[in-house]
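Tip: read the tokens left to right.
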């Protein structure tokens, strides 16, 4: 144990002397937090909508005002007489065409057709526009008492948003960013540190000493685990101040899961560093195998149920998937161990596999010809 601590102290001293590595460890994670936290927005807003009103009545103008009162659409003029002119020019994502007998037919309780032309280039955005237009129209008819009593539905649902009633996207995005940041940078630092030993030739001295591969890797694991904890404190503190995150319920799942997750991230970096031959390869390995999988296959942005087969199987061995469950529960839901008990166990198993594989790789290198 004493040799492991000495190795960890040596790594921390080297880390402290390298200003570029310190910047990589603390400045870049904060930059990623700010970029992702403020740039990613999953809810469509400020959608340009053009209107072609052939009725020009008081009721049609009220209907148009109701559409823009949702704060989801912004008015965009039609550049030409054709209703598709705004869509063709790319200045609008949808166009509403109100027929000339709009008010008269509604007051006579007769069906009236309002045409909506939607740009379907972005399928998700088109679906959001379609649902919003439909819901706004139904709300307009219901609140204006334009639908006869016998035609109204006897069911009036009362919907309440649980856990995030204000629909703050930061409560969903920012805890997910923790899973990406705290996987990429600790693993990258560990990989670079191990490869640097190869490039400088100091790894040969380790082979010649009585220090085993397990002890040597444990020293690096402990050192960069402490660095990762420092990164976590800085990133989460800044996120708390900027985005108003607050812990919900029992914080122990987050604390336990954080330590296990950082240990797994460092073990992954050690594995990549053991296989890479230079620092460029180590950075590319952690960026491709670590960053892309944590970003795309963890449920950070895309729902896990939407990942197609066979990539859906790969998502089961992505530690970021389970840590994001922990962070979103800690900062949004607050269910505690009852809801996330399996996540630290899964991360520990995957991290143990990474560390064991890195140990075997170094052991083969030590006794190879």
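Filled-in amino acids:
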């Amino acid at each position: 144990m004493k040799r492991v601590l000495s190795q960890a102290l040596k790594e921390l001293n080297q880390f402290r002397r390298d200003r570029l590595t310190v910047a990589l460890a603390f400045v870049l994670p904060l930059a990623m937090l700010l970029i992702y936290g403020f740039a990613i927005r999953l809810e469509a807003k400020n959608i340009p909508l053009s209107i072609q009103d052939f009725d020009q009545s008081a009721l049609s103008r009220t209907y148009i005002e109701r559409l823009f009162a949702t704060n989801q659409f912004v008015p965009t003029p039609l550049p030409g007489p054709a209703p598709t002119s705004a869509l063709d020019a790319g200045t609008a994502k949808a166009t509403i065409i109100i027929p000339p007998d709009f008010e008269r037919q509604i007051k006579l309780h007769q069906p009236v057709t309002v045409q909506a032309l939607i740009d379907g280039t972005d399928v998700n955005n088109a679906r959001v526009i379609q649902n919003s237009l439909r819901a706004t129209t139904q709300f307009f008819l219901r609140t204006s008492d334009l639908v006869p009593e016998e035609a109204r539905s006897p069911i009036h649902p009362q919907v309440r948003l649980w856990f995030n009633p204000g629909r703050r996207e930061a409560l969903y995005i920012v805890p997910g960013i923790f899973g990406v940041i705290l996987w990429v940078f600790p693993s990258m630092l560990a990989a670079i540190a191990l490869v640097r030993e190869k490039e400088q030739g100091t790894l040969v001295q380790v082979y010649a000493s009585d220090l085993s591969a397990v002890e040597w890797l444990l020293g690096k694991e402990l050192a960069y685990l402490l660095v990762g904890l420092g990164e976590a404190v800085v990133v989460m503190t800044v996120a708390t101040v900027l985005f108003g995150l607050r812990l919900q319920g029992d914080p122990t799942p987050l604390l336990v899961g954080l330590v296990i997750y950082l240990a797994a991230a460092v073990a992954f970096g050690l594995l990549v560093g053991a296989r890479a031959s230079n620092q460029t390869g180590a950075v590319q390995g952690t960026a491709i195998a670590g960053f892309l999988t944590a970003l795309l296959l963890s449920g950070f942005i895309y729902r896990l149920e939407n990942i197609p087969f066979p990539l859906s199987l790969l998502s089961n061995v992505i530690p970021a998937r389970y840590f994001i469950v922990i962070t979103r529960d800690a900062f949004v839901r607050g269910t505690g161990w009852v809801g996330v008990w399996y996540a630290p166990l899964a991360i520990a198993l995957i991290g143990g596999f990474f560390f064991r594989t890195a140990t075997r790789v170094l052991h083969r290198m030590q006794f190879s010809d």
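Residues 2-40+167-366 form one domain. Strands lie at 47-53, 73-75, 94-98, 115-118.
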